[in-house]
Predict the 3D structure of the following.
Amino acid sequence: MKKRSFRSIITVMLVVVISTISYSAFHIYSHQLEKRIYSEFEKSIVEYSLDEFDGNHAFIRNSSLIFTVSMVFIIIAFVLFIHYRFVRRSLREFNDTIQDVNKGDLHSRLSIPETKELGKLGKNFNSMLDRFQVAQRELKEFHTKELRSNYKLATIGEMAARLAHEIRNPITGIANAIEIIVNDTNDPENLPILEEIQRQAKRVNDAISDLLKYSRKKDLDLSLYKINKVIKPVVSFLRNQLDNKEIKFELKLMDGIPPLRFDKKQMEDVLLNLGLNAIQAIQEKGMITFQTEFNSNESRLLIYVSDTGKGIPENELSTVFHPFFTTRSEGTGLGLAVVKDTIDKHRGEIWVVNNKGSGCTFTISLPVERE
């Protein structure tokens, strides 16, 4: 019994030892096998991963290129859609509204919402049209008033011209009769009275002539003339109108001035009027200068008529060309108004300034047309 038990124990122990040795051997073998398997697997994985990486890299690169190109096309298509949907439509509405305004329809307005593109610009454009419409309405009302006023002035001017013409005929007859009586009278007491009547009749006749000349809008007879050849005979005439005054005339006429298209008769009247005013402005002694210049850069002719007289008060320089303005007790105040009207009809300008020393200078600026 004890031997069987001992054998059983020995057998169990041998089984355990053999089992342990077998397990250890199996474990060692399996571990080596596992390492070998893992090594082979890793080698396969690495080789597979490198091949797959190259393929994936090429795929990703191609996909990225395709994606980028696709996105660019999508963005361009989106921008074109936005442009067509909003900007182009708004610009077309702008163009239609501007065409309506050019045709005279100031009631046309843009209907672009402020939330859209060009909306703020459209609002400002509508505001501009509103202000322009108000300005046009005010200007139309002003022109209507001006037309009414001009019509009244034209009517009054026509009546004054007819009345002046009716007065002129008997005044001319009276002046001629007085001249005959003065030449034939031998009464020294009444001679001064007759001469004064004759002088006053002439004054009235001159005033009526100036009024008729100013009220009649005579058309221009334009031809080509050289201004220097027009000035010289005018100065020769003025030398005989000095009324015992010691006045010298100086001519500073520029050579080579091209011919100018103007009405010779009316331009002679302008120069004669300015010359007579200069003579009247000089008390006893003085000088009157006629000067011409040509500005080739602006194609304008400049004519200066200056004197050494008493000049014009500074506060009256801006009103010397107004009708009926005069600084003389015997003047009608229409001479310079006629002068300005003639220069205006020639599309020119005229102004006056006082000289530093004494007297004043009238300047005429006329355009010279290129042939």
